[in-house]
Design brief:
- By secondary structure, the protein is α+β, with helices and mostly antiparallel strands.
- The protein is built from 18 helices and 16 strands.
- It has a domain of 147 residues: Serine Threonine Protein Phosphatase 5, Tetratricopeptide repeat.
- β2 and β3 form a beta hairpin.
- α6 packs parallel to α8 and α8 runs antiparallel to α9.
- The longest helix has 23 residues.
- The protein is globular.
- The chain starts with a helix and ends in an 11-residue tail after the last helix.
- The relative contact order is 0.12.
- Keywords: Cell outer membrane, Membrane, Signal.
- This is RagB/SusD family nutrient uptake outer membrane protein.
- Pfam families: SusD-like_3, SusD_RagB.
- Belongs to the SusD family.
Length: 562
Amino acid sequence: MNYKIFTYCLLLILISQAGCKKDFLQLDFGTTLPEDKVFSDPLLTVRFADNAYNFMIDDYARLQDGYKGTTGQLTDEATGAVVALAPIWSGNYLGANPDIITTYSRMYQGIRIINTVLTKLDQVPWTGSIYNPKIVRAQMLFLRGMFYFELVKRYGGVILADRPFTPTEDIDLPRNSYEQTVAFILNDLKEAEDILKVESSFNYSPANEWDAGNYGRPTVGAVKALRARLLMLDASPLHNPSGDAAKWNAAALASKEIIDMNKYALQSDYASLLNVNTSPEYIMIKVRAPRQLGGLMGDFIMSVGSGGAQGILNPTQNHVDLYEAVKRATPSGPIISSSPIADAGSGYNPQDPYANRDPRFYSNIIYNNMTWQGRQIQMYEGGTDFKIGPISYTRTRYYCRKLWPEIYKAGATARSLINYIYFRYAEVLLNYAEAQNESNGPTAEVYQYINQVRARAGMPGLPAGLSKTDMRLRIQNERGVEFAFEDMRWWDIMRWKKGPELVSQTLTAMNVVKNGNEFTYNVVPVEAAYQRNPFQERQYLYPIPLVEINKSRGVLVQNPGW
């Protein structure tokens, strides 16, 4: 076997073994020699560095068995029969939910690889190589910033490690403060951006960014987008209870930098946002090959009536109610006005609830009597897509269209893209609108950027004269609609500190009764098993996994209330 290939394979085995170790911050015995071999070769160094990408969070359904359970099912967005969700629904976060237990170690495993690379870069004989070590460094800094962001948004301040640890070091370290963690991430992102703005390599240049074979690696835009998201977290009520306008202004400026790049634009078609190879709206995505029926689609999202094993990602009526009612001058003409369905004069008809709604509703939700896969969806008892009792059918009379491409049905062999989007331009626009509204009130720019997002879907602009509070609520509603099922709602609710209002509200469903060729609709509560316990203050931050607390000999302090 080629020596380089052998060394690389051996190193991968050692990395995988290290991932199972109890002390994931520790450098395991036996890896020193292979690392020395690897970091004597630029190609193997780059391949070793690329392993850090494997620890990124990279799919929507990941909370059980690797393809079931979304963070949206922790909120008012959706529910469903997923066992791993129960600890969070009950408020018992010390249970074994993967987002709480495994994310902590997963991020530090990635950080350990990154710190090893950053420490060894100067030892690599780069002269004559096609690789630029500064570009490698920029990637590692971005990924470390990404991993620490995933930690800080879940746990608050965490242990900051900027180098790998030796086998003999004491790694029972105290947590850094939340403020120190944020500052650490910002420093990494600044250095990464400074490098990516000026350095080039055989597959990257500041003007053209990455070549086609490297799509999905960090760019200047991605660095800026992560910074903007971090500053939105920092400015929001969870970490800014006094409402310090300076923090909101910093968040606004971070998003405005991306807008002023004039590089990104909203994709014209909202419905296919997750299903295209490239898009002017993509800032950074997880590159995925087209996937066949099964797994995520067949055993989690699809109706049994369409060939799915379990259709247990069930949008709630609470979520459906976020989509505004619209009016048109003619049945097929453009929308001329819209308003929340609870507003007097909205035109919403409870007995024709799916007519004349925000067009994004039809892109995101599968509902009774809609045409889908060449047939009518049947959400009534005795219909193809719903049964009382079996948990493999929807509990709300809705399925998620956004994550269910229409080609996926019984007997299908076709493939489809379902990309995981890290950052897209619509978030930048809505981040800017939210931060501007909080720092300066509902200015013309706030209207400008939220209305851009609405206009892409064919929705009219928001009414003039909204107060700051009213605009805040409209922006929050807009985010709930625009980013439906995209792993955003849970984190938005946490940073807004709206857990009691949105997480533990009564979840509702639509009861559908077929009467001949007509239907009767009534909103009803979802069964008790799918409701949530009252939200507690301690739930805004996850507990540090108990195994880490217990082995730290009292050094690692738990989050309040846990």
